[in-house]
Model the fold of this input.
Amino acid sequence: MIFHVLTIFPEFFEGPFAHGVVKRGKDAGLLDIRIHNLREWTSDRHRTVDDRPFGGGEGMVLKPEPLFAAVEAIWQRDVPPDLPPAPNRKTVLLSASGRPFDQHLANAYSREAALLLICGRYEGVDERVAEHLADDEISIGNYVLSGGELAAAVVIDAVARLIPGVLGNETSAAFDSFQDTGHGEGLLDCPHWTRPAEFRGWKVPDVLLNGNHEEIRRFRRQLAREKTARLRPDLLAE
Ligand code: SAH
Done:
C-alpha cells in the first residue's frame, strides 16, 4: 500500500516512520510512504501556499490552486494516464471538523491500494478542497491541532498495522481495542500482565497462570467487558 502525504513541513515526517512496526512494514515492501512538499506546486517567486480569508478574520487559509495541482499530479504520477484510474485509492483531508477517524475507518483504509493525506495548516484549508478534491474529510479527535501532520502520522500508523503481514504472525490486530473483526466485537482490549506475577504486593489474576486456555479466554472477555463498561460505556451503547 502507498501512503502519499501532502504537507508544507516535509521534514516533520523524518521521525515518525523510522521505528517499529511501520518501519518493518516499509522494509518488507508491504507499504511505502511518500512525502510531498506542497510548495513544489506553487507558481510564484515566494512559493505562496496561503492567503487571507474572504470575509475577514484571523489567520491564513491554504489556497486551493497548489493543493489541486499537487493532488492531481501525484495521482497522475502514481497511475499513468494510459491506465484506467485506480478506484481503490482515496484522497483524505485532515481536518478538526471532519468525521471521526476510528478503527472501523482504519480497517477500510487498509484495504485501499493508496491513500493521499492532505495536511492543513494555519486557520485551515479552502473549503473547495473538502468539497471537490478530497473523498473524505476526517478528524482524529475533538481537539484542535496546529497542523494536519501529526494527524496524518496517526492515520498512517493505525492503518499500516492493519495491512496483512505488517504485524507478523505472532501478533494479530484482531483482538485489539475497537476491532470488530475478532472476538473483541468492538470492546476495549483486555488488560495485559507480564512477569513478575507479584509486584509491590499486586498480583496477576490466578486464572492467567493456570494454563486453561478456555477459562483464560472467557476471563479475558469478561475483563474486557468490565473495562469497557467502566471507561468507555459509549462503546457498549452502540
Ligand atoms: N480553524 C480550524 C482549525 C485549523 S488547525 C478549526 O477550528 O476547525 C490547522 C490544521 O490542523 C487543519 O487544517 C487540519 O489539517 C489540522 N487539524 C487540526 N485539528 C485536527 C484534528 N482534530 N484532526 C485532524 N486534523 C486536524
The longest strand covers residues 89-100.
